Amino acid sequence: MGRISIENGRIRYFGNTAGYIAGKRAVVDPIFSSEKLQAFLNRQNDVEEVEWRESMNAWRMDHWIRKPPFSRTSVSGSLDQRWRYL
User: Could you count the other beta carbons within 10 Å of the beta carbon of residue 30?
Assistant: First the structure.
């Protein structure tokens, strides 16, 4: 595994979710801005544009990729059943 990679539509930067791929555009949090990340994204054939967007965070980016396996407002099920997904 490289230090910078794209996995399941997410941009991984040294183990952290730094952004995501939306069509031909990479949306990245500027806190991860570096020459290495910019060079990596420029080398990707399927990325035509890089958007640096403020106030991104890992939970929000992961939420766009997949939905949680349970409802946060649900109180049904035992505590063990709800915690096994976390």
Answer: 13
Question: Looking at residue 56, what is its pLDDT?
Answer: 62
Task: Give dist(CA 65, CA 83) in Å, integer.
Answer: 21
Give 72-81 pLDDT, tens digit per residue.
555 555 544 4
Domain boundaries along the sequence of the chain: 4-83
Query: What's the CA gap between 19 and 52, in Å, rounded?
Result: 9
What is the total residue count of the chain? 86
Per the CB < 8 A criterion, the answer to whether 40 and 11 are in contact is: no
The pTM of the full predicted model, rounded to 2 decimals, is 0.63
Q: Cα–Cα distances in Å, from 25 out to 20, 31, 48, 77?
A: 9, 18, 6, 40
